[in-house]
Every structure is written in structure tokens, then in C-alpha cells.
Design brief:
Elements lengths: L3 H34 L5 H9 L6 H12 L4 H8 L9 H27 L2 H8 L4 H12 L1 H16 L3 H7 L9 H10 L3 H30 L1
Helix pairs in contact: 1-5, 1-8, 3-5, 3-9, 5-8, 5-9, 6-7, 8-11, 10-11
């Protein structure tokens, strides 16, 4: 059975995933829209930066975020000047690391959804004298709703499964930075395989349901 520490890790993981997904949808939407619409020469560079977490080891991302948010880093000095303290080994630090690490899993589905809309709906809205914001909220968002669902599901699921980034930035502080993946690691190190099985099996079921949901939506869209 699951212990109180296991339940605390699950609660913290779900809270982290929810906060991270909400932030990513706010940040990722304008980035994805710009990538889908721009003809700027910087489009390729920005797209590559967004996709970096797909190829970089999580420990590399965690290491550089630690440097940036540490006492001698520019972000760390800024947060200390504001009286906020340091972000590493705190829930806020986990959120920052998760946002960076899960960014492509939100931006890329949104970008694909925006690109699939095409020019025709935007041209029709323009002929009706709709402003840019009106067009975006009244035309683009409803048409791109499946992309938002996919982005939210992928961003949430990817955050739940993080290990390397959260371990480097958050450490292993019970009820503060110890998420499910770190809790499983602790159980394995302590040879507590029964407890590790409970959490690991839950992660397997969760991952399967996420993929099943996404594939079901795609098949429904094809029909």
C-alpha cells in the first residue's frame, strides 16, 4: 500500500503539473502563434530553442538553470534583490524547470493547430472588419481547440513524468520538492520494491491512458 510520503509526492506532482501546464498554455500560445505566422529569419532559431528540451539531457537543462537561479546567477541575484530568495530547492524552482523542460510539448501541438487553420478563415474575418484580437479569440481559438487539448494533456503528462530536471533543481525535500519520480527512485535505492511497484504501476496506467486519449481523439478527427 501507499504510505503518507507516497501520497504527498502524488499530490505535489499533480500540483506541479497543473501549475506548469497553465503557465505553458499562457506562454506557449503567443509563441506558437508567432512561429505559425511569421516569416522572420529568426523563426528557425526560435523554433530550435523551443525544441531544445527534446534533445538535451534533463541534467544539462537542470545544471544551467541551477547556475542561472543560484546565488551568483543573474536570475538568482534578481530574485534576491526582490526579497524572494533563491528559487532552487523550492516549489517555484520546480515550476521554472518544468516550464522549460515541457515547453516543446505545448508549443509544437499549438503551432501545428494554428498552421492547420490556413488563411481562409482569417481572410473572411478580415472582410467582416474583425480586429486582430477579435479574430484570434472568435475564430482561431475555436478552430484550434483540439490542439489546445493535446497541448494541455501532453504538457501535464510530461511534467508528471519528469525526473532529472526536478531532482537537480528541487533536490529531494519531503512534501516540498519530492515528486513521484523521485519517490520511486528513493524506494528503489532503499530496496523497497513493493512501494516502488505501486507508484510505478500507477505511472504506467497514467501514461497509457494519456496516449489512449490522444490516439482516440486523432481517430475521431479522421472520421
Amino acid at each position: 500500500m501507499m504510505s503518507a510520503a507516497d501520497l504527498a509526492a502524488i499530490r505535489l506532482t499533480l500540483e506541479l503539473a497543473a501549475v506548469t501546464t497553465a503557465i505553458l498554455l499562457v506562454i506557449g500560445t503567443p509563441v506558437a502563434w508567432w512561429l505559425a505566422r511569421t516569416r522572420s529569419a529568426f523563426r528557425g532559431a526560435v523554433g530550435a530553442v523551443v525544441a531544445l528540451p527534446l534533445v538535451l539531457p534533463p541534467t544539462v537543462i537542470g545544471f544551467y538553470l541551477l547556475l542561472l537561479m543560484g546565488p551568483h546567477g543573474p536570475v538568482g541575484q534578481f530574485t534576491q534583490a526582490l526579497g524572494l530568495g533563491l528559487l532552487p530547492f523550492s516549489f517555484a524552482g520546480l515550476v521554472v524547470g518544468s516550464v522549460f523542460y515541457s515547453l516543446p510539448f505545448v508549443v509544437q501541438p499549438l503551432q501545428q493547430a494554428f498552421e492547420a487553420i490556413g488563411e481562409r478563415p482569417l481572410e473572411v474575418a478580415a472582410t467582416l472588419r474583425a480586429g486582430a484580437l477579435d479574430t484570434f479569440f472568435s475564430v482561431v481559438l475555436p478552430l484550434a481547440r483540439p490542439g489546445f487539448v493535446t497541448a494541455a494533456v501532453l504538457g501535464f503528462a510530461h511534467t508528471v513524468g519528469e525526473f532529472g530536471v526536478v531532482l537537480m533543481i528541487g533536490g529531494n525535500i519531503p512534501e516540498k520538492t519530492r515528486v513521484v519520480s523521485v519517490q520511486i527512485y528513493d524506494h528503489v535505492e532503499a530496496l523497497e520494491y513493493a512501494q516502488a511497484h505501486w507508484l510505478s504501476a500507477g505511472m504506467v496506467v497514467f501514461s497509457f491512458l494519456v496516449l489512449f486519449l490522444l490516439h482516440s481523439r486523432k481517430r475521431g478527427g479522421v472520421r
